[in-house]
Design brief:
Elements lengths: L2 E5 L6 H8 L22 H11 E5 L10 H5 L1 H6 L4 H13 L15 H13 L5 E5 L7 H18 L2 E5 L3 H7 L1 E6 L2 E3 L1
Helix pairs in contact: 5-6, 6-7, 7-8
């Protein structure tokens, strides 16, 4: 249930750290465990299933599928998980309602503002109730008011789900709202 903001200069390793925590990139040394499980000890297929089920991602570039509705984009992790159940569709709709987009469920990304697309990405990251949510500059391209609103949503929805949140950001206001702040400099995470 803890939250962590990571700040640091460009090239310090912030995105690499998130890729390792997100089981996208294998560490060159050390180990990573989530709930006592080392995902890198698993086969690639098992690792992918572990990542899909236990880790949610929110990126600066929302990576929504242009031809799909907001609801369909939210449900993409469920498709990768195996099936879209009526319960997951209902959860996707509730999450879109939570992020203020109940009236936009059928809209495609091109019909949504930047802030709305990022809210869809947040709902997508949370649809499978992951233990860990990783956000890489989730508000980097948004104005300050929208940035704070997106950060508030991310923090509140992750807290409601009882998950952990790690946010990489350059924005002090975002880092302070997330909570605990650590600096990453030259590949070293400091206080």
């Amino acid at each position: 249930g803890e939250r962590l903001a990571i700040m640091g200069p460009s090239g310090s390793g912030k995105s690499t750290l998130l890729a390792i925590l997100g089981v996208l990139e294998e560490p060159s040394a050390g180990s990573v465990t989530l709930d006592g499980v080392d995902p890198f000890a698993k086969t690639p297929a098992e690792r992918a299933a572990f990542r899909n089920r236990r880790i949610g991602f929110v990126f600066q570039e929302h990576h929504l599928l242009a031809g799909c509705s907001a609801l369909d984009n939210v449900l993409v992790p469920a498709l990768a998980h195996g099936s879209v159940t009526p319960e997951l569709v209902a959860r996707g709709r509730r999450l879109l309602d939570h992020v203020g987009l109940a009236h936009r469920v059928d809209h495609r990304p091109g019909e949504l503002s930047g802030g709305e697309r990022q809210r869809v990405a947040i709902a997508r990251a949370l649809v499978l109730s992951p233990r860990l949510v990783l956000a890489d500059e989730p508000t980097g391209q948004l104005d300050s008011a929208t940035s704070l609103a997106i950060t508030e949503l991310l923090v509140n929805l992750t807290d409601e789900a009882g998950g952990m949140l790690v946010v990489v950001t350059h924005a002090d206001s975002v880092a302070q709202r997330v909570g605990h702040v650590r600096k990453l400099v030259d590949g070293r995470l400091g206080p």
